[in-house]
């Protein structure tokens, strides 16, 4: 199979990865530990919001009909019967000719049907038994009615949403001290190749340090998984297969880097020929990283990414992260594509779509993408500044500056080309 590979599109490859891939089970966590997690169930309002009629501003609670004819020149006097702070329960009813001094968020007293702000009364800072109203109000003016924002039982956050700061505010408002979230997937990481050194080992001739493992670990954690780093995978198939089986027992998903090409020691390519392994694909129409492979072994998914850092980085975004989002039950799994003008001509021919790392800028209301030009698969020094992938269609012409291309963002753009 390693020399007879069927090339499929990125979209088809992702589709095969996600087929029959179920969401992981639910667990309960403390609200203070829930930020960034994925909701496992819909969250409903446990009460009306607001839970009572209240004032949205500092002023006076009044009967609107008592303000009829009020102007700056002819203010209407009303007797102040009490002061209501936020958190207080009003003690007195607003009756004809009276008003209650009221603070933002405080409960509306019985009888009141409008609130006039301090600035529209005479001497608002003076604590007096009388207030003089300088503007006529309509019934319901400057009020927040009970349940106007959300009624009890309504869905306020949906299953599959990632919990952000706003979600936390909603959860706290409705008393969710414990939050139902999807369990984080455990993702095993295995790097192939006897040429790899650990980060803290000194360089020796013919060896390189393993940068892919730490890079993938960060991407997995950022998406919501738990990276589990295993010792490197041997290049001998029997030993590698045994090692993979042991690792799969401890994780939900296994990711390897390296060993997917057609070299003599590319163990992941050899593994696809094993009778107890189900191959999903072993060649994708992309540059870099076309030998990217996926298979099923022991009823678990293995994503085998290229060992070249740039290709591994791209493969993780295109294939690994959608799998993680699916396991987490996220509502949006596929990577979103947008369109932008190509900032500079790129005319290097390629039989497959080429994904170029780059940056985005906004100029006079138009979006531009600028390739970083360091597009060899093994080059990694520009990855820390990469914001997106510009997709150059296959063929010999490439794309000219000013032509529209598809773009996949992987970080929030800085909108600047300055280094």
TrEMBL record:
<dbReference type="GO" id="GO:0005829">
    <property type="term" value="C:cytosol"/>
</dbReference>
<dbReference type="GO" id="GO:0061599">
    <property type="term" value="F:molybdopterin molybdotransferase activity"/>
</dbReference>
<comment type="function">
    <text>Catalyzes the insertion of molybdate into adenylated molybdopterin with the concomitant release of AMP.</text>
</comment>
<keyword id="KW-0808">Transferase</keyword>
<dbReference type="InterPro" id="IPR005111">
    <property type="entry name" value="MoeA_C_domain_IV"/>
</dbReference>
<comment type="pathway">
    <text>Cofactor biosynthesis; molybdopterin biosynthesis.</text>
</comment>
<dbReference type="InterPro" id="IPR036425">
    <property type="entry name" value="MoaB/Mog-like_dom_sf"/>
</dbReference>
<protein>
    <recommendedName>
        <fullName>Molybdopterin molybdenumtransferase</fullName>
        <ecNumber>2.10.1.1</ecNumber>
    </recommendedName>
</protein>
<comment type="similarity">
    <text>Belongs to the MoeA family.</text>
</comment>
<feature type="domain" description="MoaB/Mog">
    <location>
        <begin position="188"/>
        <end position="326"/>
    </location>
</feature>
<dbReference type="Pfam" id="PF00994">
    <property type="entry name" value="MoCF_biosynth"/>
</dbReference>
<dbReference type="GO" id="GO:0006777">
    <property type="term" value="P:Mo-molybdopterin cofactor biosynthetic process"/>
</dbReference>
<dbReference type="GO" id="GO:0046872">
    <property type="term" value="F:metal ion binding"/>
</dbReference>
<dbReference type="Pfam" id="PF03453">
    <property type="entry name" value="MoeA_N"/>
</dbReference>
<keyword id="KW-0479">Metal-binding</keyword>
<keyword id="KW-0460">Magnesium</keyword>
<dbReference type="InterPro" id="IPR036688">
    <property type="entry name" value="MoeA_C_domain_IV_sf"/>
</dbReference>
<dbReference type="InterPro" id="IPR001453">
    <property type="entry name" value="MoaB/Mog_dom"/>
</dbReference>
<keyword id="KW-0501">Molybdenum cofactor biosynthesis</keyword>
<keyword id="KW-0500">Molybdenum</keyword>
<dbReference type="InterPro" id="IPR005110">
    <property type="entry name" value="MoeA_linker/N"/>
</dbReference>
<dbReference type="InterPro" id="IPR038987">
    <property type="entry name" value="MoeA-like"/>
</dbReference>
<dbReference type="Pfam" id="PF03454">
    <property type="entry name" value="MoeA_C"/>
</dbReference>
<dbReference type="InterPro" id="IPR036135">
    <property type="entry name" value="MoeA_linker/N_sf"/>
</dbReference>
